[in-house]
Design a protein that fits this description.
The chain has 186 residues and is mostly helical. The chain has nine helices and no strands.
């Protein structure tokens, strides 16, 4: 019986998340009502309140899921591949989850999530790369590179993938490489 309820709970939460993602593409989170969310998911309001207190808690759950899934995905990427292919693999993941990435990475009202996303992914990437900058400047350079890379990914998402993944990966890699090599020349 526990398995059945567990599957039902997972399905219910997934329906609610999908409903919110669909609605948030049309209007902001604070304009979405629980009634509207539940009607869109074809669920009762009482079912919603069994799992979440409001749409903001549901959104936070979506954010946490995406962040955890992304970090797990990054951990699973083969580190023996070259940097361009590492970026390419990550971009394939972004593209396969485009609707949620467009919402969370491209909408200005999600700036808090975007900063957390950058900090967590930067921490993960830094752990996998050798130190390439002097320690006094490292945090500034990594922050600059991560924000710049994120902006390229945002533009690519908003432009509906107007460039092939391999070109975007090469662009990010070459720009980052120029920044790192340019800093060592100073």
């Amino acid at each position: 019986m526990a398995t059945k309820n567990n599957r039902r709970t997972k399905l219910t939460k997934q329906l609610l998340k999908s409903s919110l993602i669909e609605l948030i593409q049309k209007k902001s989170l604070n304009q979405i009502t629980i009634k509207e969310l539940c009607e869109n998911a074809d669920l009762n309001r009482s079912t919603f309140y069994l799992h979440y207190s409001d749409q903001y808690q549901l959104m936070k759950n979506i954010e946490d899921d995406l962040l955890n899934d992304t970090l797990d995905y990054l951990k699973d990427i083969n580190t023996s591949i070259d940097a361009v292919n590492y970026i390419k693999t990550f971009l394939e993941y972004v593209k396969s989850n485009a609707s949620i990435f467009r919402i969370l990475l491209c909408q200005p009202e999600n700036a808090t999530f975007q900063n957390i996303f950058i900090q967590k992914t930067m921490g993960h990437i830094k752990d996998r790369l050798p130190s390439i900058c002097p320690t006094e400047a490292e945090k500034y350079i990594y922050d600059f590179v991560m924000h710049g890379s994120l902006q390229i990914i945002r533009k690519w998402l908003i432009s509906d993938f107007d460039m092939p993944i391999s070109k975007v990966a090469n662009l990010i890699y070459r720009l980052c490489d120029l920044i790192y090599s340019g800093y060592t020349d100073l």
